[in-house]
Amino acid sequence: MLPGLASRILRTTHKRCLWKFAWNFGVKGMLSVEKFKRRIKRGEYFPPFLYLSIINSCNLRCQGCWVDVEEKDDIDLDTLNRTITDAKRHGNAFFGILGGEPFMHPELLDLLAAHPDCYFQLFTNGQFITEKVATRLRDLGNATPLVSIEGREITSDARRGKKDVFNKTMRGLEHCLRARLLTGVATSICQSNIDELLTEQWLQELIHRGVHYVWYHTYRPVGPKMNPQLALRPDQLVRVRKFVVEKRARMPIAIIDAYYDHDGQALCPMATGISHHISPRGDIEPCPIIQFATETIRDPRGLYATMRDSAFLRDFRELSAKATRGCVVLERPDLIKELVIRHGARDTTARGTALAEIEAMRPRFSQWLPGEEVPERHWMYRLTKKYWFCDFGAYRNVAHDAEAKALELKSKLDPAAQKVDTFAAAGVS
Ligand code: SF4
Predict the structure, then answer these.
(1) Which numbered atom of ligand 1 lies nearest the CA of 367?
(2) What is the pLDDT of residue 194?
(3) In 45, 94, 236, 263, which residue has its Cα 20 to 30 A from 158's Cα atom?
(4) Which atom belonging to ligand 1 lies closest to the Cα atom of 320?
(5) Which of 399, 376, 371 is nearest to 386 (CA)?
(6) Is residue 410 part of a domain?
């Protein structure tokens, strides 16, 4: 599959975009992870990959969204530039840009232009990517749009709370591809779209359209309007992983998943410290779905020192890694509540109900299903993950009781247990 993918990318991507991807993301990204490993040895944590939600406004109203999309908070350009410049001083070159809808930020393109030595991944619904915007992105060359598609016509409208979402998003996608941008499609797999989008036919269609990579997330029921009925069952989580491993070894399209190492062991990228999240108000959060913070990017110490010295982030990483290789928020919301209270962490939402939302959560399965590991099959993914996307030793102190609990959980994965969708309903306390 690799020669097919490489030739497709070479034929369909503008050379400036290709060069920036190879150098800013590929080479500098690897070097930034090497620096991160050296920092860990000194006991210092500062993530090489930062995710910034630069605005919370959005034109869509997705089921289960935890962002305050009715609000108009955004991070101004000066603060964004200062944040990125500080991270660059410590070897960072890659930044994930999220929202809300990042293209609703009036200075997004100015931000990209101010950092030609960095690479940005733009998580977008694609609807604001006109021909003109796509051309500007091509001229800049240092960003890849990752367009989210949550189902075909009918499913998309239901999932995203507006009409004609699929067609409008496909138009944005088309503009990206015509401008020869390196372009991806992201899907949060859930009950309503798993049979539509976790299929070889869908990947074929994306390849036919010219899409270069796909990112499969799995839906996590959190936030003010959580939809547990959309969450995947354990057997479906394993199905997603098997699909990804098999198709990425065989089809000429890159497939990203962010919750497993080269041996197929589960991990949480925020527990390993490779990443953390900055909210639209500038709060520094452990991850996008933990909307609590004790520090902000406006701290006069600067971003690096603020994150390095954050006891809240440190305790989150340690607590998470000790509790589970999976998602601590889904499996142990009680621990997140304790952490927040112990640190007196602020609720970073505009709605001010984040603690009540955590209290309302019931423990459930996440990506950690011991005995169900699916190791990478393709050498390129094995190698890349082994050196640059692993647990970085975060789980060496995994408590035996956590493992025992996970094994107990796994023993319940018989066909009957698979019909229920929550950890608690499976009888695991
Ligand atoms: S805590 Fe859960 S949602 Fe957050 S990064 Fe880790 S696995 Fe993902």
Answers:
(1) 7
(2) 98
(3) 236
(4) 1
(5) 376
(6) no
Give the three-state DSSP class for 119.
Answer: strand
For ligand 1, the distance from its centroid to the CA atom of residue 287, given in whole angstroms, is: 6
Query: Does 109 map to a domain?
Result: yes
What number does the ligand 1 atom closest to the CA of 326 have?
Answer: 7
Place of tokens 């006109």: 130
Quick one: how many helices (H) and strands (E) in the chain? 18, 11
Quick one: what percent of the chain has pLDDT higher than 70?
Answer: 92
Cα 269 to middle of ligand 1, angstroms: 7
**Is the CB of residue 179 less than 8 Å from the CB of residue 134?**
yes
- The verdict on pTM exceeding 0.85 is yes
One-letter amino acid at 54 equals I
Closest protein CA for atom 6 of ligand 1? 268
Q: Structure tokens of 108? A: 């997004």
Q: What's the rounded Cα separation, in Å, for the pair 335 and 341? A: 10
Q: Is the pLDDT of residue 256 over 60?
A: yes
Which three-class secondary structure state does DSSP give residue 219? coil
Domain containing 172: what range? Answer: 2-399
- Distance of CA 15 from the midpoint of ligand 1 (Å): 35
Q: Which atom of ligand 1 is nearest to the CA of 286?
A: 4
Separation of alpha carbons 11 and 364, rounded Å: 45
Nearest CA among 251, 255, 179 for reference residue 216? 255
What total of structural domains would you count in the chain?
1
305: domain CATH number is: 3.20.20.70
- Distance (Å, whole) CA 306 – CA 308: 6
Confidence grade of residue 131 (pLDDT, cut at 50, 70, 90): very high
CA–centroid distance, 88 to ligand 1, in Å, is 25
């796994």: which residue's tokens?
Answer: 410
> Rounded CA gap, 318 and 232, in Å?
27
Residue 404 counted as domain residue: no
Structure tokens at 152: 């075909």
Nearest Cα neighbor of 286 from 363, 365, 345 is 345
Confidence of residue 409 (pLDDT cuts 50, 70, 90): low
Ligand 1 pocket, residues with Cβ under 6 angstroms = 220, 268-271, 287, 289, 327-329
Measure the CA–CA gap between 344 and 374, rounded to whole angstroms: 39
Cα-to-centroid distance, 268 and ligand 1 (Å): 5
Non-local CB neighbours of 429 within 8 Å, separated by 6+ positions: none
- Does any domain span residue 110? yes
